[in-house]
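Lest this sound abstract, we think one record worth quoting, the chain in one-letter code, the fold tokenised, each line plainly labelled:

>
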Amino acid sequence: MALNSRNNENYIRVAVKDTGLGISKRDQKKLFKLFGTVENDKNLNKKGIGLGLCICKMISTQFGGDIYVDSVLKVGSIFMFEFKLDDCDTT
């Protein structure tokens, strides 16, 4: 977790590291969309229906932030989200 400032606005950023299978560039584009799931693979958990990251995206944007993924296939992923902090003194 980190506090960041840009354009005189304060943000909090949280990063979560996943050392799983990683996500292809093509599948990364699907992640934050409603019912967005990755390609079928026998090694993946197939119980997800693609709502969790879409909900996280909606919450992040409602708070003036965003959510991102940085992933390397067969290595893992880092999910980052940030929220804008209103009237926060970071000193």
About this structure: The chain has a mean pLDDT of 80. The chain has one domain: 2-39+46-85. The domain at 2-39+46-85 is CATH 3.30.565.10 (Heat Shock Protein 90).
